[in-house]
């Protein structure tokens, strides 16, 4: 009886494919690492690719501020500056547009 891959979320077959060309030494290294982890080559590659993809996305979607910058940012949020004349004018104009709808 075939067992499901630990990375599969459902019983449906995979529908997407990525082909990768490797040098023989790269393939051997991946095969050895997969064997040492007790994974299929596909599962080993998927596991590492997904972990790296998520890490890359996290790094590009979040900011880490140094303490001084974090304090300035928090202070600006706590006490934002008053709007300038152009912003006040636009807000009034938008308010009038909404009132006439």
Concise structural overview:
By secondary structure, this protein is an all-alpha fold.
Descriptive overview:
The protein is mostly helical. It has two domains: 24-61; 67-99, no CATH class. The protein contains four helices and no strands. It has helices spanning 24-37, 41-61, 67-78, 85-99. It is elongated and about 65 Å long. The mean pLDDT is 88.
Major sheet summary line = none
The helix count comes to 4
Radius of gyration: 27 Å
Instruction: Give the DSSP E fraction (strand runs of 2 or more residues).
Output: under 5%
N-to-C SSE series?
A: HHHH
- Give the overall form: elongated
Mean pLDDT: 88
Task: Please give the number of β-strands.
Answer: 0
* Terminus-to-terminus distance: 66 Å
What structural class do you assign from the helix and strand content?
mainly alpha
Low-pLDDT stretches are: none
Q: Characteristics of this structure?
A:
101 residues; mainly alpha
Write the layout of secondary structure elements.
Layout: H1 24-37, H2 41-61, H3 67-78, H4 85-99
Helix pairs in contact: 1-2
